[in-house]
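Sample intake sheet
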Amino acid sequence: MSTIERAEVFVASPGRNFVTLRITTSDGVTGLGDATLNGRELAVASYLRDHLVPLLVGRDPARIEDMWQYLYRGAYWRRGPVTMTAISAVDTALWDIKGKVAGLPVYQLLGGRSREGVMVYAHASGTDTEALIDDVQRFRDLGYRAVRAQAAVPDVGGTYGIRKGNGIYEPASSSRPEEQPWSTEAYLDHAPRYLRAVRERLGFDFHLLHDVHHRLTPLEAARFGKEVEDVRLFWMEDPTPAENQEAFRLIRQHTTTPIAVGEALSSIWDVQHLITEQLVDYVRTTVVHAGGITHLRRIFDLAALYQVRTGSHGATDLSPVTLAAAVHLDTAVPNFGIQEYMAHAEVTDAVFRSEVRLEDGHLLVGEAPGLGVEYDETLAARYPYEPRYLPVARRLDGSVHDW
């Protein structure tokens, strides 16, 4: 019987910080898992190296479900982003191994195709409305059928979701968190206007998304959703912090704008009420932060019973390993909605060589066994870890606001 011979944790910064787990079996088969938790990477690396890796050696890599239960239920301290990200890395690596042993891509192990391609949305932004419209058009010209739109709020310097220059959007800064100003009043005044301007200029023949980023109270979010109903958003994302799931009922009572939630949530219990009470339309939990392929499939199956669709987080703070795992799962599940996608930096793609490819606004999986991703540890070693933190938002009176 094949057993786990070793498990290695790599922390590197090829373009941005990533934590990667590689499991090797006694038969020489390797599997990759992503363990990146933006701004808290070393906490997960330590959890893996110091607590989980010693438990893996000698175990049967084929017993994926048993391993998940062992690492989750076998520990007294459960859940939370650090624990679930570490478990995700192990789970994803084991699925990669199982696919390689079977000689099949992971999506085949999950039941085969439900669709030919996975529709994605791009991230358009601008320092003002005109710049935003130009950026949306740029992505439309590239073949994207869905675009998220974010524009800077005038006279508020800390607007989230805005790229600096023409590069990849990167909110994490070095050394210490950047403290950015925020005005809810200015946002509520400005955002509906620029979303409406996008529709007036570019029409309705593509999906338009918007990220509220936890910034509003339930009543403010209800007001926003109602005001932009004529814009016909595909969704408004994270309209209010999700710790209080009941808060979404108030939003539901006032607007028909679809709601997407979940990228900062890490288990089926975090989204159970949101799904079963049909308080959201899209669940955005992701492979790396919600327990791997095994647990995310469980979340998606629950969501399917209540006509809630998937919309997994997929920014560049997740490595190409997570993107590949997400696309395999997206390809298989019946209730897929949309997949977030941001192209990685060239150096990231050089370290993580992936078969996933973008065509006509869709991501397509390859047919290589497993996840179809290879990791170049030698190249990765040239890019050492760099401390980077996400910003902190402060209201104009100086008090801390939700980021």
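Comment: The radius of gyration is 21 Å. The mean pLDDT is 96.
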